[in-house]
Design a protein that fits this description.
Elements: H1 8-21, E1 24-27, E2 30-36, E3 40-45, E4 48-53, H2 56-99, H3 106-119, E5 125-130, E6 140-147, H4 149-152, E7 165-172
Antiparallel strand pairs: 1-2, 2-3, 3-4, 5-6, 6-7
Helix pairs in contact: 2-3
Length: 181
């Protein structure tokens, strides 16, 4: 049947016709017999048997998926902790900045901290303002913001409760300038 010389197109048409109509197929120019079984196909060729395994991709995916998901969730959690650190630093700076003006009181600094933390949807934080209350003669203002990352983490699998994110900012207060003659 395949003894005569054929062109490439004619040969491919013949193999395609042979594959769809018969139980046998051509593998690299040699005749092989395919036997269909449940879940696997056995290909017999010159005494050797090759079993085609169709579920191998599913099994490999099942092994790799948990590792892939752990990496993805780890990246997300690391990003959230970094965002929390930056937000705590920004809140401490904004609180100290609000407290250094001439007529500032403690509630001004606390309001600035609350505004930053609520914009980032962060809860369960503590704010310490020193000196408390702010006096006109205070030379500097120190605002410290502390946060428990497990209360604000997205997944909290990778952060522990004994780590606290803390930022402290000290700024010098504005004073009335005195003109000297």
């Amino acid at each position: 049947m395949l003894a005569r010389r054929t062109t490439t197109g004619e040969h491919n048409r013949h193999i395609a016709k042979f594959n769809c109509c018969h139980d046998a197929t051509m593998i690299k120019g040699r005749r092989a017999t395919m036997i269909k079984r449940r879940g696997a196909t056995t290909v017999e060729r010159r005494g050797a048997t090759i079993i085609e395994r169709r579920g191998a991709t599913t099994v490999e995916f099942a092994y790799c998926l948990p590792i892939l998901l752990a990496f993805i969730f780890g990246i997300l959690e690391f990003s959230r902790v970094t965002q929390l650190q930056q937000s705590v630093r920004l809140a401490a700076f904004e609180g100290a900045r609000a407290g250094i003006t001439m007529g500032a009181v403690t509630s001004d600094a606390q309001t600035a901290v609350t505004r930053v933390m609520s914009a980032m949807s962060i809860s369960a934080y503590t704010t310490t303002i020193s000196p408390n209350p702010l006096a006109y003669t205070s030379p500097s203002v120190t605002v410290t913001v502390a946060l428990d990352p497990t209360q604000n983490a997205w997944f909290s699998w990778f952060v522990s409760s004994n780590n606290t994110i803390t930022a402290s900012v000290t700024l010098l207060r504005e004073i009335d300038s005195v003109s000297v003659p």
